[in-house]
Amino acid sequence: MSGRPGLIRRYLDRLPFEAGDPIVTLKEGSTPLVHAPWLSERVGAEVHLKIEGANPTGSFKDRGMCCALTAAVKEGAEAVICASTGNTAASAAAYAARAGLRCAVMVPEGKIATGKLAQALMHGARVIALRGNFDQALTLVRELAARHPIALVNSVNHYRLEGQKTAAFELVDELERVDAVCIPVGNAGNITAYWKGFQELAHAPRMLGFQAEGAAPLVTGRRVEHPETVASAIRIGNPARWEEAMAAMTASAGRIEAVSDAEILDAYRLLATREGVFCEPASAASVAGLLKHGAGDARRIACVLTGHGLKDPQSALEQAGSVIPCEPGLEAAERAVLG
């Protein structure tokens, strides 16, 4: 096999698969870990960015989806289904196409970023726009999967966590020691998976989870009926992995905090203009949380950036500077370029 292996083959001895299984892969995993000099200076610690937007469909979801689809094929499924705010839909659609399975995704109507919707449609998924929120969509697809021979590939599927835990393996492989991990929290599957991975390696970094103020049920301790935030990927009011995520916080001496949309967008812009890293707004919640709440006495910190900035081009255009018009002449070009 040329190039890097997919994460199942790379970590086969730590995953619930065997070499002869029908592995579904797009060569996911092995994503860049980039030192962040400006951010390190700002917070007075060594900060690294785990760029999960470098996965095949542009988000961390591919780690779990390769495992969920491998299991689905192994178990004889002919179709898969998920509820999604966008990234899960894109990933499920791509891996289902790779596996030759039918895919249906249910998304909240009008609440999915353009890039993610385009991906799901292009990969051939049947996309259903629910006149409701993500939590209602998840309830419905769970009921549908229970009634029909369709594999549910949301993070309630334990194979998803098995794949996502490999990001923790990669952090330890590269850094040897990490004191704290800052991570956005929506449905809470990712932070649960990271902690699972660290535990399997006998590591215990402080898990610092950050939610948007308008969708912060783990912070307030109560379900949010109508979650709202610019960070669409974490616009979830009733996380499926609520208890596991809180257990990870407690066991790691970590915490869960909220950040405002303004703070998320500020971190989003700073990452792009100071570190050269373009992530989607929800990803920037990890950095917004670090800037606002700090990481205690942690000296080596990893911030997880869960998705690529091109997932949500509209947010980028709304936050960036405007395009400068220019007539086709040298003097006009000088004025446009030099200001």
The unreliable regions are: none
User: What value does the average pLDDT take?
Assistant: 95
Order of helices and strands: HEHEHEHEHEHEHHEHEHHEHHEHH
The total beta strand count reads 10
Instruction: Kindly report the spatial arrangement of strands forming the biggest sheet.
Output: 1-2-10-7-8-9
CATH A-level architecture of the largest domain? 3-Layer(aba) Sandwich
In whole angstroms, the N-to-C terminal distance is: 52 Å
Let me know the largest β-sheet: 6 strands, mixed
Helices and strands: which structural class?
A: alpha/beta
Helix content: 40-55%
Overall outline: globular
Describe this structure in words.
With 339 residues, this protein is of the alpha/beta class. The chain has two domains: 213 residues, Rossmann fold, CATH 3.40.50.1100; 97 residues, Rossmann fold, CATH 3.40.50. It contains 15 helices and ten strands. The strands form two sheets. A six-stranded mixed sheet has the order 1-2-10-7-8-9, sandwiched between helices. A four-stranded parallel sheet has the order 5-4-3-6. Helix 4 links the parallel strand 3 and strand 4. Helix 4 runs parallel beside helix 5, helix 7 packs across helix 9 and helix 9 packs across helix 11. The chain is globular and about 65 Å long. The protein starts with 6 loop residues before the first helix and ends with a helix. 53% of the residues are buried. The mean pLDDT is 95.
Explain the layout of strands and helices.
Blueprint: H1 7-10, E1 33-35, H2 37-43, E2 46-51, H3 61-74, E3 79-83, H4 87-99, E4 102-108, H5 114-122, E5 126-130, H6 134-147, E6 151-152, H7 158-164, H8 166-175, E7 180-184, H9 189-200, E8 206-212, H10 217-220, H11 242-251, E9 255-259, H12 261-274, H13 285-293, E10 300-305, H14 313-319, H15 330-338
Parallel strand pairs: 2-10, 3-4, 3-6, 4-5, 7-8, 7-10, 8-9
Antiparallel strand pairs: 1-2
Helix pairs in contact: 3-4, 3-7, 4-5, 7-9, 8-9, 9-11, 12-13
